[in-house]
Amino acid sequence: MTIQLYGFWRSNAAFRVKVALALKKLPFEEIEVDILAGRQFDTDYAHVNAERVVPTLVHDGHRVFQSMAIMEYLDEVYPEPRLMPEAARERAYVRAVAQVHVADSHPFVVPRVRKHLAQTYGVGTDAIEAWCAHWGREGLATYERMLMTRPAAPFVIGATPTLADICIAGQKIIADLYQVDMDEFPRVAELTQRCFEMPEFAEAHPFRQPGYRAVEI
Fold it and tell me: Which part of the chain is the GST N-terminal domain (predicted)?
């Protein structure tokens, strides 16, 4: 078995996949694609990932992209420990929780959106950071309401983390990057604290990656 992951320290999507790999104790080789420098648009990488985004997982020569697809693929190929519940209703709930981050919040703060705001509309750095913080808070607020309705015990679905917890942790990373005050979101803060107390989450955090640059927002 060989696993390669095209990723980058700053990539929230790569973070999600790294946590999934760590929870399943699957070793991998990371290949850096500097998305801040635009290396995802290099011709060589376009042959790896037609969408020109990270991450891309290569498993025994087979390529998978999009973080949710990668994590579900890993769960099917290496089913223990499970990242998706067995019951259909619970699986649907986990996917819904995950999509709040993956589909409704994180896409608004990725490099290509920030670049488009700056180049097309002349939006300055401070306004872009405020934009990103806004979408960070929006996702956190949704998760806070969800956890109020269905409290974590101790994770979103039971005793162990699932894709839902990984994605909520990803939303917390947006808060970390853009200095969002977590006082408004105590349930999210409590859940993500439990997540990041686990080495699988903590060691995948962008701030813990070798390429992390504190000045880079």
Answer: 1-82
For residues 58 and 141, state if they share a domain.
no
CB environment 41-80: b (16+ within 10 A), e (fewer): eeeebeebbeebbbbbbbbeeeebbbbbebbbbbbeebee
Interacting residues of 144 by C-beta distance below 8 A, sequence separation 6+? 184, 185, 186, 187, 188
pTM metric for this prediction: 0.95
Same domain assignment for residues 104 and 177: yes
- The band of 214, judged by pLDDT with boundaries at 50, 70 and 90, is low
Residue-range definition of the domain harbouring residue 60: 3-81
108 and 137 together in one domain? yes
Strands 62-65 and 29-32: unpaired
Asked if pLDDT for residue 174 goes beyond 90, the answer is yes
Token pair listed for 29 = 């080789």
Identify the CATH number of the domain in which residue 93 sits.
Answer: 1.20.1050.10
Q: How confident is the model at residue 215 (pLDDT cuts 50, 70, 90)?
A: very low
Same domain, 203 and 96: yes
What distance, in Å, lies between the first and last C-alpha atoms of the chain? 36
Query: Same domain for 199 and 184?
Result: yes
Which of 40, 64, 81 lies at the terminal end of a domain, its last residue? Answer: 81
Distance of CA 28 to the CA centre of its chain: 17
